[in-house]
Amino acid sequence: MSDEHDIPVQASSGNVFSDLGRPDAEEALARVRLAQQIAEVIERKDLSQIEAAALMGIDQPKVSALMRGRLSGFSTDRLFRFEFLQPDCG
């Protein structure tokens, strides 16, 4: 096997945003993790995007964006505040 096709590999720090040099790497990773948890709850509760939107107080296209990882309109604080994630909401 020839070395001409070898690609140098660098170990990740565990935060892809940091590896890419983003100045907001920790916040970006936190937002992604929160969005993943929200998506998991929506799936676990078998909610439609319309139902999830009603519980979250946002419209369905925003739920769709969140589920697809398009998080530019979501701050970390906003993601934390979604009501349906609270334990007393079943």
Automatic annotation (TrEMBL):
Residues 1-20 are annotated as: Disordered. Signal peptide: none annotated. Gene3D superfamilies: lambda repressor-like DNA-binding domains. InterPro entries: Cro/C1-type_HTH (IPR001387), HigA2-like_HTH (IPR039554), Lambda_DNA-bd_dom_sf (IPR010982). One of its GO terms (molecular function) is DNA binding. It comes from the Bacteria. Residues 16-82 form the HigA2-like helix-turn-helix domain. It holds the Pfam family HTH_37. This is HigA2-like helix-turn-helix domain-containing protein. It comes from Candidatus Thiodictyon syntrophicum.
